[in-house]
Design goal:
The structure is a homodimer.
Chain A (H helix, E strand, L loop, with lengths): L1 E5 L4 H12 L4 E5 L7 H6 L7 E3 L6 E2 L1 H11 L10 H37 L5 H24 L10 H15 L9 H11 L2 H4 L21
Parallel strand pairs in A: 1-2
Antiparallel strand pairs in A: 1-3, 3-4
Helix pairs in contact in A: 1-3, 1-6, 4-5, 4-6, 5-7
Bound molecules: glutathione (2 copies).
One glutathione (GSH) binds next to helix 1 and helix 3 of chain B.
Keywords (chains A, B): Transferase
Organism (chains A, B): Pacificimonas flava
GO molecular function (chains A, B): transferase activity
Chain lengths: ~220, ~220
């Protein structure tokens, strides 16, 4: 069986957990905090990042998108990359948008200020950084709202890795108290539909030790 | 025909130029400096980044890896992603390694210090940053040397997108005077083989206005 090396607030690990659940691939989980740079994690992934999926045939699989492409190629159930080269390009473009831009501008700063400073550095968050991250997050919600004006799902007519990636990042922001759908009705409906998928529902009860989410976090009706 | 929106020292644009040449796909080029955030570039790519490939069927293609996957799916000549799901995972892992880690730690700082500060900010480079970038680049050469101890090409037995990506980033570092293969004989041989491929040779005469490369830069025997 596969083992996913992850921690509860890693958005890329959440992305993998959702996609493996969508694909009905079973896996165990093992806690790994990248900032501890344990020998075990460094041996599995020279980049020292989570997630890593180890265990079956061949070397470990490193990087959330690499893992997604791997299972989309090897497991037929629930295709997640779109059909046709252009549709696939759009799924990949948006997946990268959330994994790189939304993460760097909004989710990573939130993780630093609200999780890492609290649990590891034992420092208070920087209010200015929180404000900047909040503004960036609002711009990403704007973009989601815009996309959903023309499409049922983020990359087009079908649920795809782009939706999974966006939901993974937003759910981490939500856990950290940084998400509000005020003014984004389509984004809110989309997120509530995603939240009710079994693949996502399954990870909402998870807690990061020492850090609680707001009350509404795991409610389907938020 | 396709049009590639790029600038000569953008490593991701170089990656696309090399892969399109390997695939025998014709394209025109148009200069775009992302820091100018022109309306044209922003309309093509909301992320405001180069490269973008516009022109044929459907919307523009954004992001170097999205472009690579698109042409690997649509053009049979010169498969670049590896064959079999595990080999493909390794090609993608290493491509991301160079595009994210090597770029962030070494190539982007070099571009900032030696290109952007000189051409746009009109400031001298920061010697400390150059030293840190140089050390990071050496670690990436170390890793290339290690990989080539076991493999003919970076991701295995065949030339792949991982080699293209690595060569694109290293060639930009080389243009900026930041690359030395002293102590890395296998990496040097690999890079010299890559440099002699027509796809790569074709881009070495390119110059960034206002910035000259060192003498050895476009020599095959360096
Ligand atoms: N491209 C990677 C990114 C993974 C990533 O950035 N993980 C974070 C934790 S959420 C990490 O390990 N950060 C520590 C580091 O980058 O050194 C993926 O998609 O899996
Ligand atoms: N993931 C993108 C990265 C492209 C990228 O970072 N391009 C740089 C120029 S080399 C850029 O546009 N930087 C400006 C910015 O990020 O705003 C790709 O693979 O194409």
């Amino acid at each position: 069986m596969w083992t996913l090396h992850q921690f509860p607030l890693c958005p890329f690990s959440r992305k993998v957990r959702i996609l493996l659940a969508e694909k009905d691939v079973e896996f165990a989980m093992q806690l790994a905090y990248p900032w501890e740079k344990s020998d075990e994690l460094m041996d599995l992934n020279r980049a020292g990042q989570t997630p890593v999926l180890s265990g079956e045939r061949g070397g470990p699989l490193v990087d959330s998108t690499v893992i997604a492409e791997y299972f989309d190629e090897t497991v037929q159930k629930s295709p997640l990359m779109g059909s046709g080269a252009s549709a696939r390009a759009e799924v990949r473009r948006l997946t990268i948008w959330f994994d790189q831009k939304c993460y760097a501008e909004a989710v990573n700063p939130l993780l630093l200020e609200r999780m890492y400073k609290r649990l590891v550095l034992r420092q208070p968050p920087d209010a200015r950084m929180l404000r900047v991250a909040g503004q960036a997050l609002a711009q990403h919600l704007d973009y989601i709202e815009y996309l959903l004006g023309e499409r049922r799902w983020l990359a087009g007519g079908s649920f795809s890795l782009a939706d999974i990636s966006a939901a993974a990042h937003l759910s981490v922001a939500d856990y950290l108290g940084g998400l509000s759908f005020d003014g984004y009705p389509d984004a809110k409906t989309w997120y509530s539909t995603i939240k009710s998928r079994p693949s996502v529902r399954r990870l909402l009860p998870d807690r990061m030790e020492g850090l609680s989410p707001p009350q509404h976090y795991d409610k389907l009706d938020f």
